Amino acid sequence: MSIVKSGSATYKPLGKSGKGSISTQTGALSNHPYGFNTRFEDGKGTNPEELIGAAHASCFTMALSFALADAGYDDGELSTTAKISLDKTDGGFEISQSALNLTAKVAGISQDEFAKIAQGAKENCPVSKLLNVPITLNFELSKS
Asked: CA 40, CA 35: separation in Å to the nearest integer?
């Protein structure tokens, strides 16, 4: 079984002066603006790194939620931010890292068990597997 979801983008005219828009199949984003100013400056709109961050944070958080439930934990709350690093290199630009920062409340779990389950979710969520960069995970587990 293969699930296919899509996103689309337009951009015109070409180069720094161009403006683009992105849309998602579900309509969550519809002709949302992006361009040079939203990626490299503080322009209003979005950019690929922000979208990858949202995708990675949501994928990891869902994977962790399911893994915790599979381990018998059903009372909790997870909140993740993924910071995507875009670095200038000799060859242009490259995404060099995804840093996951997680805050969690899970009733009855030990720090060690939580760390093991969270690490597994980090390594096995489909977006983590897609990204060929170092992926770090920092978390804060508060006692319920």
From this structure: 9
ω before 134 within 30° of 0 (cis)? Answer: no
Distances (CA, A) of 39 to 9, 20, 73, 144: 14, 11, 39, 39
Whether residue 84 contacts residue 52, with contact meaning beta carbons closer than 8 Å, is answered with yes
Q: What is this structure's pTM?
A: 0.89
* Residue 60 contacts residue 79 (beta carbons within 8 Å): no
Q: How far apart are CA 5 and CA 143, in angstroms?
A: 37
Q: Other CB atoms closer than 10 Å to residue 6's CB: what's the count? A: 8
Q: According to DSSP H, which parts of the chain are helical?
A: 36-40, 48-70, 111-124, 126-130
pLDDT in tens, 107-126: 999 999 999 999 999 999 99
